[in-house]
Design brief:
single chain, 123 residues, Arc Repressor Mutant, subunit A, 3-stranded antiparallel sheet, 6 helices, elongated
Length: 123
Amino acid sequence: MSDLSCRISDAEWLVMKALWQESPLTASLVIGHLKPDTDWSPKTIQTLIARLVKKGALGVNKEGSLNQYYPLVSQDECMRTETNSFLQKVYGGSLHLLLANFVKDDNLSPKDIQELRKLLDRK
């Protein structure tokens, strides 16, 4: 799957998260998953699902009169794409600047610092 299919909006992320947790799901079940956390109408959620199908992020199985939707891209793939997009947009692609910004953050706990060191040591 190309990186382009992972380029999804914040609203589409919520739909994808529901389907990454459990799939395949009908549109009604996706609506049920999102209802507690959003004030979106069922029509809005159906529109988001249709956009994700068009982008190639979701597939659809037609079972009788019901459509069951499932992810065609993994959450990890989309996270990598979003991370690279963020890195490019905010830091001009510089991983050094991103890490320097995080390290300068006063909110890093000793545990956070230790985990960062471990990650860097493994590289």
